[in-house]
Amino acid sequence: MEQHIKAPMDRETASGLRAGDYVYITGTIYTARDAAHKRMQEALERGEGLPLAMQGNILYYMGPSPAREGRPIGSAGPTTASRMDKYTPALLDMGMAGMIGKGRRSVAVKEAVVRNGAVYFAAVGGAGALLSKSIKKSEVIAYDDLGTEAIRRLEVENFPVIVVIDARGNDLYETAAVQYCSLQEGEES
Prior knowledge:
Blueprint: E1 2-7, H1 11-15, E2 22-31, H2 34-45, E3 58-60, H3 88-93, E4 98-101, H4 107-116, E5 119-122, H5 128-132, E6 135-142, E7 151-165, H6 172-188
Parallel strand pairs: 1-2, 2-3, 3-4, 4-5
Antiparallel strand pairs: 2-7, 5-7, 6-7
């Protein structure tokens, strides 16, 4: 199914999404990769606040290339999400509504997605130049010294993603593999 949603995203919207849905996000999302996640975790351990509220927000695991003239950002493809797995359950428990990346997630992340009624989206790897066309504005809001790994606020319009893990725990990577194997078995008969 194809759906258009607004970001930040509420739990009702998240609960209406299903693994395999094609989704177009419009609104505000944030970028954060390994180094930014590590800094946020260290801040939490020191009892400090985070540079952005997690409630309802979507984090995009992306480090952009430099912007071309007249553009807000350069190539903006996803990075491997599993590198953030050790930090993700705590952020989900703080109200984060979704994440965008690529690749499988750990059991702990899946459990936190379900516990919090959140969603894990995948963006197409290798399509960073195309994805950047949906980004209308980019602004560093924290950890500027990290360069491409700084936390950025992005204004996006019809940013294309696919629901991989939905709020019920359905995982497209698992269901698609089972479906593919069933098709292969059917062809061999």
